[in-house]
Amino acid sequence: MDQAVMITASAAAQAYDVAIVGGGIMGAATAYNLARAGIKVGLFEKGRIGGEQSSRNWGAVRQQERDAAELPLMIESVRLWMGLEAELGVSLDWHQQGHLSLVYDEITSEVFEKWIPLGREHGLDTRMLTSKEVHHLLPHYRDRDCRGGLFTSSDGCAEPEKVTIAFARAASEKGAEVFELTSVSSIEAQNGQVCALWTEQGCVKADSILVAAGAWTNRLLRPLGIRHPSLWVRGSVGRTGVLPIEIRKLVAWGKTAYRQRSDGRVNIAVARAAFHDLTGESLLNGMKFLPAATRNWRNLRLSLGSHAVRDLMGDFADFTTHRTLDPRPDWRRLENTARLFAQEYPEAGPFNLERGWAGFMDFMPDELPVLGETSSCRGLFVAAGFSGAGFGMGPVIGRIMADLIQGNPAGHNLSRFSPKRFSKERQP
Fold first, then answer.
1. Whether the Cβ atoms of residue 66 and residue 112 lie closer than 8 Å to each other
2. Which residues contact 230 (CB under 8 A, 6 or more apart)?
3. What residue stretches are annotated with the FAD dependent oxidoreductase domain (predicted)?
4. Could you tell me the fold of the domain covering 231-363?
5. Which one of 3.30.465.10, 3.90.1150.10, 3.50.50.60, 3.90.180.10 gives the CATH number of domain 15-70+160-228+366-422?
6. Mean pLDDT score, 66-84
7. SS3 of 207, please?
8. Which is more confident, 327 or 140?
9. Binning pLDDT at 50, 70 and 90, where does residue 295 land?
10. How far is CA 58 from CA 1, 16, 109, 142, 239, in A?
C-alpha cells in the first residue's frame, strides 16, 4: 500500500492554531477542511496515515439503517462523496450503486420494514426487494434461502486504502503539516483550557486540539478526567484473487459481507459476529455495554487470551509500542465465510483468499459517535467512537469538526453525540 505522505521533519517547538491527534479518516478530513480555510494545523499520527481502522473496513458509504440522529449527517456525506474524487484530484474507486442487506427470515424483514419510513422521511429511495429482484440485481447470486432484501440505490462504496491518504495529501498541499511516526503521549490544559500536547518530538502548543484517535481515544482523554467508555471490537476481512464474475459495485450484507474491488478481487468479511478481546477496559466499562450485548448476544464472541495478558502487563499503555494495531484475523471464520460466499456465487469457481487482515473498532455503549467540544476542557474537541460505521461519514465529519473548531454552526443537531453524555454532568 502506497502510504507516502508529505511529512514535516520536526515538530519540536512548533505552535498551531489546531493540533489533531490521529491520522485516520476523521483527523485527515478535518485537517483538510481546516487547512483550506487558512487555519494553521498540525496532524499527528503515531504510525502511518490511515494505518488502522480507516484502511481496514469494508468501504461502505451507507445511509441505510442509520440511527435517526446520524441519518442527516450521512445524507450530507453522500453528497460530499459524489464530488470528492474531483475535489481531491485522485481516484477513490467511488461507486454509487447502492447498499443491500439481505433477508432470510421474517423477523429481519420486519425490522427492515420499520426503518423504511425513516429513510423516506429524509427523501431516501430505500425499498424492500423480493427474492426475484435481489437475484436480478445480483445475476450471479444463487441462494434459495434469500427472501429479499433492503436496498438503497443512492448508497455507495469506495476503497478505504486510498481515501485517508488522499485527504492527508490534500491537507498537506493546502498547508497542513502532517507528522507520521509521531505519537502524542498526553494533552496539557491550564485553567480549564487546552494549551499543548506532548509528542515524541517535544511540546507542541495549540489553541485547539482535536482527538480523533479511534481505538486509542479513551487512553488520551482519561488523564484529563473525561469519560469515553469505548471498547475495542475486532473485525476480520479476507480478499480473494481476481474472480471471473462481475458483481454490482456495492456492499452486500447477509450471510457474508462483501464488496468487489475495481481489480476484480472481492473483499469478504465475517458479517454476523462481533469479537471482543477482553482487557482491563472491559472491566471498567463493560456494564455500560450490557444493553447492547443483550440485544446482540447471538452475534457476540468474547476472547480471553494473549490480548488480555498483554493489556494487564501494560503493553497498550505506551503509544509507541504499537505504531499500528494489527491484530490477527480469525482465519477459521474467514475460511468459513469464504465457503458461504462460494455457495452463494458458484460461478466464481474455486478460489482462495489471497490475504486476510483484522482491525479494532472503537464501539460506544449506544453505538453512536462522540462529536464536539468537551465541557470540562475548553478547546478540546473529540471525534471518535464511530462503532464500526465511521468510514462513510468521514467527509461530513471533517466538515463539521472544522466548523465547530472555528466557532461556526455544525449545520446539524449534534445533541445525541455530545461528549457529556457519559459524564456525571447533566446535559442542558
1. no
2. 215, 217, 218, 281, 285, 362, 363, 364, 384, 385
3. 17-404
4. D-Amino Acid Oxidase; Chain A, domain 2 (3.30.9)
5. 3.50.50.60
6. 99
7. strand
8. 140
9. low
10. 16, 34, 23, 22, 11
